[in-house]
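Justification of resources, computational component.

The compute hours requested in this renewal are based largely on the per-chain cost of generating structure records like the one below. Each record pairs the submitted sequence with a full structure-token output. That output is archived, and it is also reused by downstream analysis tasks.
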Amino acid sequence: DLERAIELGEAALAATPEDHPDRPGRLVSLAGGLRALHLVTGKKNHLERAIDLMDSVLARTPTDAPEYFSYQATLGSFLSNRHDCLGDFSDLERAIELKEAALAATPEDHPVYVELQALVATDLPDRFLERGDIADIKRAAELWDNVVDRLSIGDSIRSYRYSQASICFRHWYRSGGPPDALRRAYELALHAVALDPGGTTLSPSIRRSYFAAADALRRSPLGIEISPGLHLRVAERLLVDQPEVAFGLAEDVAEHTELGSGEHADALCCMIAARAELLRLAPRIEETEAWAAEGRGLGPRAVTALQAAGQPASDIAEVLERCQTGLLAQLLDANRATLTRLKGSTDTRSFAGRYENAVYDLKRLRDHQRDPEKDAPPCKETSRSENGGCSGNRRDPRLIRMQ
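The structure output for this chain reads:
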């Protein structure tokens, strides 16, 4: 484990003479382990020791050594961590100074050049918030523009980079920057959510950044520009955690795409999946009935859209069947829950009304399960593409799982 690794690193360091060529590398390795332990435990003494070790390494390394800029960037990152913990502005100033020096000493075609730009761009907005110098936020925005365009697909925190860039552009807009800065903030936040695998320690902050950017853009006179593919990817990411937001995003796509396009059909299917999740989460019968009433027309609309997009009849029938069955089952469960609550109540009229509703919904559900395609309009089989797939986009597979 991490503590055992640090223990072994301390022993190796103690056994290494001061003038041994391996000593700097062992110091850096031990410092990295201590900083990692700080991030896990939150104990500041581990970070303090890591900073002391990196300071000693940097002091003993010739400025023309090839590893010197790497040591500068590492120490700068450690100081940024301490600023986050303690709020000492001098730590932030020195962190930026070290990272800027490392960036200036690194060729643009070097593999770490983009990472160094990201390190500087991360700190500059914090200094802007402390000092209010607009030059800091403008430089950060310029750096982020370059960074996000060159991020590798294998970057494990690529979504977090997009989120940080979004926050930077939002600060710039709020400080008198151009309107395009806010649009860029929203676009980057969308990409961040679309790329986020979910369930990580960074996921909550990525989604908060998206909601902040979306709220700022909606309240501005600019309005939101719809990018169907990107908006649908974000809607799919938010289906479980934020179904109402997912529904709204998919609805925006449906309103801004033409009948017959794959995006239009996918948007309606996503709306059905989001509505099903909202029905499941609704705490009161009134909310369940409201969402059910609002969503009753989605099934036929989705069927029409899927037909127009060239989907096969079997897929269309399955979408409608899932839509109808999920809706009826949710209403039945809601009525059953209300019946249980009303048992023994003096309000016999409400009890009788709910009983009739439950019986009617049960009958509809049984009838529908016997003949799931009875409400579907006639569909024609469409031709397959040469590779054996359907022409047009297929429906969102979450629809089946969510229902």
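Residues 368-403 have pLDDT under 50 and may be disordered. The first helix runs from residue 2 to 14.
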